[in-house]
Amino acid sequence: MINSLTARIFAIFWFTLSLVLLLVLMVPKLDSRKITALQDNERRQGMMLEQHVEAELAGEPDNDLMWWRRLQRAIEKWAPPGQRLVLVTTEGRVIGAEHKEMQIVRNFIGQSDNADAPKKKKYGRLEMVGPFSIRDAEENYQLYLIRPASSPQSDFINLMFDRPLLLLLVTMLISAPLLLWLAWSLAKPARKLKNAADDVARGNLKQHPELESGPQEFLATGTSFNQMISALERMVAAQQRLISDISHELRTPLTRLQLATALIRRRHGEGKELERIEMEAQRLDSMINDLLVLSRTHNKHELRREPLKADELWAGMLENAKFEAEQIGKTLEVVTPPEPWTLFGNPAALDSALENIVRNALRYSHHYIAVAFSANNKGVTITVDDDGPGVSLEEREQIFRPFYRTDEARDRSSGGTGLGLAIVETAVTQHSGWVLAEDSQLGGLRLIIWLPINNIRA
């Protein structure tokens, strides 16, 4: 087995080319219709026929008015059963051939006219033999034999030999399995590599031992790919560990700050400065929580997934959001509720993604939020509109970055951490979906989530 892909391609190319040349050059020589010399027994049979016809003509008086009938009677008398004799005069007149045979008779006469070297040739289901010399007084004739061909060549084979392009096409078809095998041997490891790359794109950082097999070039590529995965796993693990350590270290002074704030309140009562310190401490605690959630979401290579019904998945969250909207004097309307569409994913991640978007709309809207669900045979689309200040066109792609904030109304005074939409994008992307921001007809921002229906994990 050739392990080098380069050598395999080179060998198969030259083998296929050699096969094509061999067939093109050698196959025409196998055409049974080619003119060939007679065997000894056929030559003796022809000479016997020659002697009988000459003797018949010598014993029958010559009649100038009926000379051709005399010749006709002689060849009909001595023609072997199932065969026919043909005489050709020096002027080229053919006696004894049927009208439909005249073309092949003329063709054979043009190729074999030497009585010292008689030959034979097949024409479909007929075969012509000759010539043999017939002497009648001062006249000389050439005698030919028309007989059924033994083992006649099929019409398709005849057509193939008569049409060089058809012969070339058949040759290409014969070589096609070799080329298909070559293409398959090239595509198989490439498909494996593509599937492994797709896994990495979905955040599934696991090694693929099956890549380290096959041709040397793909084997080396697979080894490098797995080494890259190992390096990425180490980097991600180090990043996760660093974030966890930083969050833990931040939590300790934050807890002390909250205890100190409680002690100051107990001793000196409420104050604006104390409220400010407490608000910032709570915001810092919320930011640390969101940062840990985002980090865990990024690094959950294999989310637990299961079949889900869209109406059951988000029903509770939507009811809670309606209740919270009423408490702050706003209205949340589900314009078109979700139906029992089947999704395949992690219920906690998908529920959290929509909840973050709805809470984002509750935070920034003035009075009204509209949520709409729709679906087709490919996926589910969720649209969340608000009547808030909106986001400029230049900043819409940036709002999904961690900690990104706009310079307008959606700033730190809203109380957000800047991580909610980053968590949404990560969760939706892990489910092979997408999320984008547009202008809303309500005057604010429209956020759209698309998730595939029946998304089976690869």
TrEMBL record:
Membrane topology per the entry is: Multi-pass membrane protein
Alphabetical keyword list: ATP-binding, Cell membrane, Kinase, Membrane, Nucleotide-binding, Phosphoprotein, Transferase, Transmembrane, Transmembrane helix, Two-component regulatory system
GO terms (molecular function) for this protein are: ATP binding; phosphorelay sensor kinase activity
Q: What class of enzyme is it?
A: transferase
Its domain of life reads Bacteria
- What CDD domains does the annotation carry? HAMP, HisKA
This enzyme catalyses:
ATP + protein L-histidine = ADP + protein N-phospho-L-histidine
Provide GO CC annotations from the record.
Answer: plasma membrane
Pfam families registered for this protein in UniProt: CpxA_peri, HAMP, HATPase_c, HisKA
Q: Which residues form the Histidine kinase domain?
A: 245-455
Q: What InterPro entries does the entry give?
A: CpxA, CpxA_peri, CpxA_peri_sf, HAMP_dom, HATPase_C_sf, HATPase_dom, His_kinase_dom, HisK_dim/P_dom
Its EC number(s): 2.7.13.3
Task: Write the signal peptide boundaries.
Answer: none
Please report the stretch or stretches of sequence annotated as the HAMP domain: 184-237
Instruction: List all membrane-crossing ranges.
Output: 6-27, 165-184
Q: Does the keyword Membrane apply?
A: yes
Q: Where in the cell is it found?
A: Cell membrane
Q: What is this protein called?
A: histidine kinase
Q: Record the organism.
A: Candidatus Fukatsuia symbiotica
